[in-house]
Design brief:
With about 375 residues, the chain is of the alpha+beta class. Helix content is about 40%, strand content about 20%. Helix 4 packs across helix 6. It starts with a helix and ends in a 21-residue tail after the last helix.
């Protein structure tokens, strides 16, 4: 004798039956939402006609909403924490990731009105100045420029949410965690339906709001956990190691979604990161891994001119280009720390997507002129 599913369902107690029906309903809703998930048109592959897809694609209409929310939520966060916005130039004679030992970034040099200069890869250095003027946190959301080719996780021109504040490494880590929670709550409460369409769910936005989900590992601990395998750990030369993208993903699998990796090899990071006072081969810096991997980088700065000069020499960077940076510390000594969040990388996490080239409204690729 065959028994139908309906008969089985109605053979259990009413409360149990209600629970089963609720679970089935949620499963159906999840499957439906995933099948209805909005996908990008992939128009970055045809840069010259990309703007036409932006005009007609629902994906870009929703992404534009999220971009606006990111900006307004950022302003709100800094209003609540006493931060002051800074308007800064996009050209600089002192890039923050110079071509020194262990540099992982290529500066973008331009000639402007007959003068050789660079497009800023970060406005961290000016923020160190405005932080001294503000006597508190100083921040901006502005474009940054990199010389590398674009790929799934890198853009040639991207937006940076950066800040500098009085204090040290622990202070900036606490501030970043508060910022991530603030943004997550804003996207969950003000754009839950949009995120649902693009990401297929909103559970990931709730994760940072559930207790203490941020874990910390020192770089050497991370290397040990990864078995020091070459696919996970890249060694440029002795004393200059970094995690590969695969290594970041594996670490998140082992430890959890939100992982701080701290105290990297000093030669693998820019000269401006402070020395660990107990081991000068290490830097007082940290990367926060979530989503596609490194999404936030932060660090404590050298507090005095002498250690800046020591770091410049160690990294084989010409001091002449950073003479003003040294003089600033001589004029106004101050212990600061700061961070930079890649806006598009954060939005990749929000949208549960894996190709950063699908996010810019207007494309820019190095070596190619793209209109508009």
């Amino acid at each position: 004798m065959k028994i139908s599913a309906r008969e089985i369902l109605y053979s259990v107690p009413r409360k149990t039956r209600a629970l089963i029906i609720s679970l089935i309903s949620r499963m159906v809703t999840t499957v439906t939402s995933l099948s209805d998930r909005l996908c990008p048109p992939g128009s970055w592959q045809e840069p010259d006609s990309h703007f036409l897809e932006v005009l007609r694609s629902p994906w870009y209409r929703d992404v534009s909403f999220l971009i606006d929310l990111f900006h307004t939520a950022t302003v709100e966060f800094w209003k609540q924490t006493g931060g002051r916005a800074a308007y800064l130039p996009v050209t600089t004679g002192s890039v923050s990731s110079p071509m020194g030992r262990g540099s992982d970034s290529t500066p973008v040099n331009v000639r402007l009105a007959g003068v050789d200069t660079y497009l800023a890869d970060s406005m961290q250095f000016p923020l160190e100045l405005t932080c001294r003027v503000a006597d508190g946190p100083s921040y901006y959301v502005m474009p940054s420029f990199r010389g590398e080719d674009a790929d799934e996780t890198h853009l040639c021109q991207f937006f940076h949410s950066e800040a500098e504040l009085p204090g040290g490494l622990d202070d900036v880590i606490v501030m970043v965690e508060a910022y991530v929670r603030h943004l997550s709550k804003a996207f969950l409460t003000q754009a839950g339906d949009v995120v649902q369409r693009l990401a297929g769910g909103t559970d990931h936005l709730q994760a940072p709001l559930r207790g203490n989900v941020f874990r910390r590992l020192e770089f050497d601990q991370a290397v040990d956990m990864l078995g020091n395998e070459q696919r996970y750990v890249h060694e440029e030369f002795p004393g200059c190691r970094s995690l590969t993208r695969e290594g970041e993903h594996r670490l998140m699998e082992l430890v959890g979604q939100f992982v701080w990796v701290t105290h990297m090899d000093h030669l693998s990071v820019p000269f401006y990161q402070a020395f660990d006072p107990t081991d000068k081969t290490k830097a007082l810096c940290a990367d926060l891994l979530f989503g596609i991997g490194e999404t936030v980088g932060c660090g404590e700065r050298h507090a005095d001119a002498g250690t800046v000069r020591e770091a410049l020499a160690l990294h084989e960077v010409n001091e002449d280009d950073y003479a003003w940076y040294v003089r600033m510390r001589e004029a106004v000594p101050m212990q600061t720390a700061g961070f930079g969040m890649g806006v598009e990388r954060f939005l990749l996490w929000v949208t549960n997507h894996n190709d950063i080239r699908d996010l810019p409204t207007l494309l820019r690729f190095n070596g190619r002129n793209v209109n508009p």
